[in-house]
């Protein structure tokens, strides 16, 4: 049965916190983002958060609960661009183009680690952390579903040929995004990721709007 630690948060207990929990969580997010779940040690986390291990356990429960809180913070912060692009743009083409262009900017920002946290955080997981890897894979699959549904809407609206394979096209653009994430981790520039975006959008199976 799938673990549900990612949806459960420890109840606060004991005396009030003596530190800024929100800022501590932000700092922990950056550690997990940079090193991944397993490689982020308790000592690295507490050093970045400016707290002691007992304070971490008191405020967040344990390392895994802290990780899932950090993932949620990422999802509503740096990782929130894709859902907004898919929901706000008038056409499927514009939505996917915006998704990739904003990713090129976000993935190369100097104010946080490179790459997508959802892609980078569970690389090289051991058997002990296989459930972490599986849960993140499920989240990434959900993101692909969002892209596919937006493409299907575009097909229904006549923006793409009726015989367009929405699943294949969604997987293609999700793969482009994940590749951009890996390249940014290796030092790719904003300009090079924008060039990848332009090339990917030329594969759009319909006349591209002006």
Automatic annotation (TrEMBL):
Residues 18-78 form the HTH tetR-type domain. Pfam families: TetR_C_13, TetR_N. InterPro entries: DNA-bd_HTH_TetR-type_CS, Homeodomain-like_sf, HTH_TetR, Tet_transcr_reg_TetR-rel_C_sf, TetR_C. Keywords: DNA-binding, Repressor, Transcription, Transcription regulation. One of its GO terms (molecular function) is DNA binding. The keyword Transferase does not apply. Residues 41-60 bind DNA. Transmembrane segments: none annotated. The keyword Transcription applies. This is TetR family transcriptional regulator. It comes from Roseateles toxinivorans. The lineage of its organism: Bacteria, Pseudomonadati, Pseudomonadota, Betaproteobacteria, Burkholderiales.
């Amino acid at each position: 049965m799938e673990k549900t630690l990612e949806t459960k948060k420890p109840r606060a207990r004991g005396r009030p916190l003596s530190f800024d929990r929100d800022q501590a969580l932000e700092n922990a997010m950056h550690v997990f983002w940079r090193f991944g779940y397993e490689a982020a040690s308790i000592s690295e986390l507490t050093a970045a958060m400016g707290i002691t291990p007992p304070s971490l356990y008191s405020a967040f429960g344990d390392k895994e609960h802290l990780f899932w809180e950090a993932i949620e913070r990422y999802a509503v912060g740096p990782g929130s661009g894709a859902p907004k692009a898919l929901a706000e743009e008038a056409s499927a083409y514009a939505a996917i183009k915006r998704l990739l262009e904003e990713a090129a900017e976000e993935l190369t920002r100097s104010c946080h680690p490179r790459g997508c946290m959802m892609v980078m955080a569970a690389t090289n997981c051991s058997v002990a952390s296989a459930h972490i890897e599986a849960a993140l894979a499920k989240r990434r699959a959900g993101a692909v579903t969002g892209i596919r549904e937006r493409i299907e809407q575009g097909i229904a609206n006549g923006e793409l040929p009726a015989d367009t394979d929405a699943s294949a096209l969604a997987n293609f653009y999700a793969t482009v995004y994940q590749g951009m994430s890996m390249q940014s981790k290796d030092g790719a520039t904003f300009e090079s990721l924008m060039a990848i975006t332009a090339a990917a959008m030329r594969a759009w199976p319909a006349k591209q709007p002006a």
